[in-house]
Structure formats: structure tokens, C-alpha cells
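Fold this complex.
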Amino acid sequence: MFNQLMKRLMLSFVVLISAQVFAQDEPQQQPIKQRYVFFPHPMQKNWHVSLGYTLTALPEDITEEVQVRAPAGDLHALRKLSDSWQLDGRIKFQILQNHFSLGPRWVKVINEKMSMSIGDDFAWWFGDLNIGSFKTQGQGWLNYPNVAFGYRLKKELLLTVKAEALIKLSEKTRVGENSVSKSSVAFNGYGANILLEQPFHKRRSIILGFKAQYSNFFWQTWSLFETFDRYIFYPELTIGFIL
Amino acid sequence: MRTRILWSAGLTFLLAACQKEKGIIPVNDNWPLFDSPQATALAPKPLRAMEGVYQVEEGTDLFGGLVAVKTNYVFTGTDTTYHLSAFYENDIGWLIMDGKRSGDSILLKGSWRKMVNTETGSVRLSIAAGNGATQLFGPNPVISPGGVVMLGQYGTGTEVPSKGIRFSYARKLFNGHAFEILAHRAGGRTSDLLQYSENSIEMMRNASSFGATGIEIDVRLTRDGVPVLYHDNTLNLRLIQKNGLVGPIDAFTYQQLYSQVRLIDGQRIPMLREALNTVVYETDLRFVWLDTKFEGSLEPIRALQAEFLQRAAAAGRQLRIVIGLPTEEALNSFKALPGYQNVPSLCELSLEDVDDINANIWAPRWTEGLQNEAVAGVKASGRQAFVWTLDVPEYIAQFSNEGMFDGILSNYPSLVAYNYYVKQ
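Structure:
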């Protein structure tokens, strides 16, 4: 599975690098005036912040007849550290279960249209479902090494293609008085994102994105206690407004 | 040009990520020696004598340190087929084998499966005369530690078995207290990618080879009032093959379902009557939990319950059939049955409800925890307590070792069986 991921990443990398080779002689990229949170590019302002939601279709293998499509609030903040370094923080919240991630990313302008970033986010999720016959709590650590390529389709339309690996670092669940802890580092799957950011109204920009995640653990399904060690498809839609 | 290349790259990337999951790969079960005329049917007696906990001395990568070996059978009208199953902890695994006699040796051929994923493969084992076969063929075989040694190979997927296996008899299977190993939906969910669909006749026939002593099945009524086995409220592609029919299952007559609907594996949706008939006459299962998934009178399933309890008794079977009550609506329907306090039942609701209807079994959800005090109280009142639906390996071990429940319902009966049988 890991080999397949690497092959796919290499394929995209080769194609994208080939594309930028054609543009070697073009001038350096102009600063982008609008704010963005996904596009891999040096920031002009110190903070870029967005608020929106993500909607993930949970697979039938796990939810069975009940098709759960609960949206998660999505607060995303990007902090400029230097021209090349940024801090990427994100909170996905459903109140009863939430996911916090934070990590550095290094950005590089390739040419007039293209740029890229490499990042590594560490995430902590927790859930507490002491409701009715569910007396359960769960928490865990995840790691998302990622690489993103950005392309300015038009002056203000920003396209980002991002690939990330999902590494499970630990998980702890509690049921009644009993608990189970696992702390082995394990490759857990991967995700491919395609995102568009563009001005929407006044200074606001809109984000529209799709993520194809292929993993054997997804934080929103911890309370279903599924035991599959096989890669399951989780499509996720992202909609947000840059504040 | 560059834009096109970029769009192509993006689409390639996304499409690559959206690939369909691979299914189970058939194993290579070709073993000329086993299939040759010299290999003859093996009597059930030596197979039963092989039952026990075995130390894995070679093959620990796949099987872990111990396997619990247990026989089971299916009776199909004129013939009884015995299998030998081995349950182990690694990746929720099981191994199901057929046995034959070849000269003074025993041959065992079968396949293994990891339930956490789709890995499977084949196994060839033999017990030579000097490794216990002579003793197993004897009139009253009593096996001591190390008295039976199974030697052979296993392979993964379609490869010819080549990796070594050595199982050495260690002790008898634990049998310290009465305990039911209950298979969810007659053996496991369709999403577990077993060979058979959930809630199907073939799944029932094979439930005990997965370690089950009993099954839980989901009962719904068709439009013409026929109790059938089906979990979901609606016909959907999760459970059935594409056929154009959509909507609630109770919108269709049984004849419509029989003639037009096939489960994922090609079987028909079974009537409850067929299912109970299969359990009574074709399996060694000793417990059936009828999970009522419909609203309305429970008379049709009460009538079948009474009929097949009588049939089982007449056939000399120690079989229990209980009506499961998961909701207040089902409880109220149950209370409408004549003499309901004497009808065998299992109640998932409160302890007060259990007392009220004189349920034989209280069955809380596993996410409420061990509840040892409450379970002890239930047992003190002459009832039993089962827990559902427990699949997480670590929690199965905790409930098995620290809990007081009389039974565990699971999609992985093999793992419940392993945890029970290896106790000392």
C-alpha cells in the first residue's frame, strides 16, 4: 500500500515538475493580494483565517444502513513565520468529537504560476459520548505529512492539489471502567485533496474542496469501534470562507 | 498546454485515490495427496479427539502463540460433514479444515482468513502415526501434552503452501462454565467479506465453523406477513444484488422477494421457517436469538418459535430460541402475546423491563461497560446476561476475562471462541 502511495505521489510530482520545466524562463510570481489558507505560497499578511465546514460521507461498510453525513465545523488558521515558513493550524469540531491539528509548512515559489509546500501536521482528536447506552470516551494522536502544489489558474483563482499520508500514532478508548490504549506508529492511509480558493464578496474569499481519503481509521468513526485493517474510501467536501 | 497537464495530473491523482477496495482472493487448495483415492474419509471420533489448545511452535507469524482447535459439523439431508476449525488471536484469524485418512496418517486441508482485512491462504497439515495419529485412531484416545503434533505448510493467497507450521497439543479446551458464543447476523456481516451473505442459510450452516455456539438473526415481516431474515429496513445494494426493486422490505410480498431478489452472494432472502429448520436439522448450534426488527404483532414469530422448540426437542436437540426485544415497541408487542411471561425472551432494555416480562436473558449494549454488579444481580435472579455486539479484540479479551456475562454476541465469534477456549 505504501508503495502504491509513493508511486502515485511520484506520478503527480513528475507531471507537475515537467509542467514547470516548460515555464523555466518565465518571471517570478507576483504577490497574491487575496488571503488563502490552502494555497502554498508566501504570505503577505501575518494571519489568514477561514471558517467553514467539512462534510464526509461515511462508508456503508462502517455505518451500514444508517448513512451518517454529519458536518464538522472547520476553523483554519495560517500564521506567517517567514517568507518560506508558515504554521498551519486547523480545528474540525462536532462538539462531541473534535480534531485539532498543527504543523509547520515550508513554501517555495516555482515560477510565475506555480508554487509548492511541504508540511507535517500533528493532530489530536477526542470524543466523549456519555449518552444513553454509550458510555465511551476516545482520544488519539495522528500525523499528516503532506505535500501541496499550487497553480494560479487566473489572477485570483487559486488551485491547490495536496497529498497527505495518514500515520496513526496512538489511540485510547474507554468503555465504562475499562480502557484500551494502543501506541504503535502505523501507516494508516492517504488522502488526495483538490481545492479552489477565490474572492467571493468584498474582502472575503471562498474555498471549495474535495478530498479523497483512503484509510483504515477515520477520527469521526472512533465510536463505531470498527476493527477493519483495510483501506476504506472516505470522500470529504470542504466549504469555507476566508475571513 | 500547462493547464491541461496540470488538470490531467490532478485528475489522475484523485482517480488513483478513489480505487475500489480489493475483495477476497480465492486460495490455492489443490493438494493431490489429499484428493487422491488413497485418502479416505476420516471418522468423526479422531477429529473430536484432536480438539484442544495447541502450542504454535512454527508459524507464529500468522497464527500467534496458541490456537484453539474445535470440531463442528453440518448435516445436509443424507450426509454429515465434519470440519476442524482453529481459532487464533492474530488479526482475528481462523483456519477451517477438512480431514482425511491416508494409511496410518491423518491429512488436514483448509484455508485461513484474517478477518481484519482480506488476507487469506491455504493450509496443508498432516499427523503422522508417530505424531499421535495412532493414538487418535485408537478406541479411546486420550491425548497428553505433546501427544499430537500437526506438521505442514501454509501459503498466502494463491501461492502453494511453503511456510512451515507445527502445532503441538498443549491442553484441553476450557469448558469451565456455560458460555454462549453468538455470531451476529448468523455468522458475520456482509461487510466482513465472508463467503456468504449475512442472515443467510449458508452463513448459518457455517456459523459453528467460525466458532459460534449460537446465532443472532434479524427478523422482519413481508407485506403478506411472512417472517424473513433481513437486517436493513430497505432493499439496498449493501445487502442485495442490483435488481431494480427499491423501498422498505415490508412493501413486498414474500413471493416478490423470492422471485426477484438475491442476496449479495446469490442466495435468496430466507424465511424464518427455513432458517429455523436449518438450525434444528442441519447444524450443531444450540442457541438462536431472534432480533425483532419490525413493529407489529409478534404472533408469527412466536408461533414459529414454539413449533421449532418442539421439533428440536423431538429431534433430541438441546436448542434454545429466544425472541429478542430491542425497543419499547417490540416490548409492548411482546406483552400482547398470550402468556408472554412464559415465552422465552431476551430483553435489551432496563432491568425493570426484564423483571416485568420475566425475560430469560438481559442483554445490554457493550458500550455500557462490564456492569459486573448488575450482571451478578441478574444471575442471582435465575436469569442470564449476554452482551452485544462486541468486536474490538482488546475489549473481547477484557469482557471474557474480567466480565461475568454468560454470552458475547460478536461479528467475530472465532475471537470470542479463542478467548474462551484458551482460558485455564
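Chain A touches chain B through 49 residues (CB under 8 Å).
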